[in-house]
Amino acid sequence: MSAQVPSDLSSERTLLEDAELRIVELEGELSEAKRKHAKTKLHVVEVEGNLNEAEQKLFEAESKQAEAERKFLEAESKQAEAERKLLEAESKQAEAERKLLEAQRKLLEDAESNLFNCLASTRAAAQKYLDAVNLKEDQDSSAEEESEESSFEEELKDFVEEVLLELPEDKESVEEAHAKISGYLDSDDDDESEDDAFYSEAEAET
Predict the structure, then answer these.
(1) pLDDT over 90 at 99, yes or no
(2) What is the C-alpha separation between 132 and 101, in angstroms, rounded?
(3) For residues 180 and 202, is the Cβ–Cβ distance under 8 A?
(4) Residues sharing a CB contact under 8 Å with residue 40, sequence separation 6 or more, in sequence order
(5) Where is the composition biased (Basic and acidic residues) (predicted)?
(6) Alpha helix (H) ranges present in the chain?
(7) d(C-alpha 189, C-alpha 24), whole Å
(8) Is 23 helix (H, G, I), strand (E, B) or coil?
(9) How far apart, in whole angstroms, are the C-alpha atoms of residue 15 and residue 191?
(10) CB burial class (10 A; 0-12, 13-18, 19+) of residue 182?
(11) At 139, is the secondary structure helix, strand, or coil?
């Protein structure tokens, strides 16, 4: 038994040395693992930092986009308001033009009505004169009657001239009628055919 002791001690020593070497190796592996873990942890921190920075930039980008959209909507609203005001202005302008045309039409109608009334007065005066001329032909030719007729004719002439003075002389057709009636009244020719021709001509002009 004493002879086997050294052999057993040697074997145990070898096992112990192997165990120590294995422990050293494991400690080395543990240290390497700890280093890798620390490195990985540092990388994770860097990644998290980059992620936070990216999230911050994304938030800023979204904020800028929201601001841009708000300004765009505001610009569209202003454009719509400007278009509404433009349409309102165009509507008011169209209404003003319509009222102006209506006023011009009314003035034209009034002017035409006044001119027609003046011409009607002229025709009535001419007709009255013609009636007086016809009446004159049916009367006796005594001196007294001629004097009365001459006075009556003068009154008719004054009446017709008074009516003619009321006519608007800026109307060319009325001026022509005025001249023709004045020339007729100043004429010494009492021929009935000429009277009828004048009256027909005055009727045609109106």
Answers:
(1) yes
(2) 46
(3) yes
(4) none
(5) 168-179
(6) 5-138, 143-165, 172-185, 192-205
(7) 161
(8) helix
(9) 173
(10) middle
(11) coil
